[in-house]
Amino acid sequence: MTNHLYYGDNLDVLRESIRDESVDLIYLDPPFNSNATYNILFRALKVMINAVFGVRNFRNEIVWKRKAGRGETNKQAIRFGVSHDILLYYAKSDSGRFNRQSRDSNPDYIDSKFVHVDKDGRRYRLDNLTSPSYRSNLTYSYKGYSPPEKGWAVSLETMQKMDAESRVYFPKDRTKRLQRIRYLDELEGETVDTLWDDIAPINSQATERLGYPTQKPLALLERILSASSNEGDVVLDPFCGCGTTVHAAEKLKRQWIGIDITHLSISLIEKRLRDAFPGIKFEIHGSPKDLDGARDLAARDKYQFQWWAVSLVDAVPQNSKKKGADGGIDGHIYFKSGAKTTEKAIVSVKGGGIGVKDVRELANVVDREKAKIGVFISLEPHTQPMVKEAAGAGLYDGPTGKVPKIQLFTIQELLGGKRPRIPLIERAFKVTEAEDMEEQDELGL
Question: What are phi and psi of 145, to 5 degrees?
Fold first, then answer.
């Protein structure tokens, strides 16, 4: 199965394009801030989902602590501060996927318990070797140490094996009991329960931050997918937003289906995936494939058209779902002009009538934003005065040579494969170390 990204209403896509019983895991995060009428259905989220999946299939209510500190900033609010989100976990049957998860142990626990160091410098703790209930075969003396009242926790054979591996502590006072040695470097961590307080929210400086107010951290989705699916399983996100679910699915070698009703999301996700996983293959459905489709989209919704057009030049769309003044900016293309210097190109899209004034306005925006290049995209062919105005803006002398400061493209040219001349384009969505290693392995590096 090829991975799929759908633009459209998820109810229509699910009915028309997704086969019954073809998905192993669904992650659903309804867009409560949307004005769409379907959000009325989610005001009683748990009641509604119980009706869909059945009360008997409910498994857990998980608390994700997403905020630390004061919580409620409104001092006039008559309530406790809200610092968490609730995740509702359902399983179709008792044979559903579930893989127990672990996390790093509490540092305070480690510091208080692992207080011993052996001759090789390994930290360890001493643990109880007493049986919780009496069993005659566990009541034996070992190397002069008498058994506790209910016997040891392990058989004589196991005790001998542990002794051979230096995992038994022998106190100098033989009236005291033997203890088990547990090494810190073998500690598997704590078992994850229903309180998830170890995954931080996305802060203002996080490299994965995309500007979505409800964006979830990648680590959160990785835990959900790791717990409830296996490699090769199909993961569906019908409100995929900025694409965190499909990013996690790709990273964890799951197959995936993402659906969203805005081209802003589709453009962001496409850019995000291609940056994080170079060479990735997936199909995009519902986006224009030719000039007629582009004209139709522009006529129906100029904002959706702009967001779609931005994706044709591999740009990051302007991070706003608001339909209004955009300051002449529909997207950005980031590139390197030196080892540590990142520059940007401004992308402007026009779906209607165009003229030389549009080129002048883009040049002004480029100067105002201290950008180096401007990319102008239009449905209509450029006039000769527009071409002359763009040429008059001069050249940008970049690290790979001189390129036009203002570059003009039509949708037809972009659909035909023509692209802006941008030096050393930088990935806007950073590849993690693990993803980078996987990429090198696949390329045989």
Answer: -100, 120
Domain membership of residue 436 (yes or no) is no
The residue from 129, 160, 186 where one domain ends is 186
Is the pTM higher than 0.85? The answer reads no
pLDDT of the chain, 445 residues: tens digit per residue? 689 999 999 999 999 999 999 999 999 987 655 444 444 444 568 888 888 889 999 999 999 998 765 555 667 778 888 888 999 999 988 888 899 999 988 899 899 999 999 999 999 999 999 999 998 899 999 999 999 999 999 999 999 999 999 999 999 998 899 999 999 999 888 899 999 999 988 876 677 777 666 789 999 999 999 999 999 999 999 999 999 999 999 999 999 999 999 998 998 899 899 999 999 999 999 999 999 999 999 999 999 999 999 999 988 888 554 444 567 899 999 988 877 788 999 999 999 899 999 999 999 999 999 999 999 999 999 999 999 999 999 999 988 889 999 999 999 999 999 999 988 666 655 554 444 444 334 333 3
Residue 89: name the closest of 119, 60, 129 by CA. Answer: 60
- Return the SS3 of 309: helix
Domain residue limits at 155: 105-186
Domain assignment present for 422? no
- In whole angstroms, what is the distance from residue 310 CA to residue 308 CA? 5
Same domain? 162 vs 279? no
Give yes or no: residues 210 and 295 share one domain: no
Burial category of 96 from C-beta neighbours within 10 Å (exposed 0-12, middle 13-18, buried 19 and up): middle
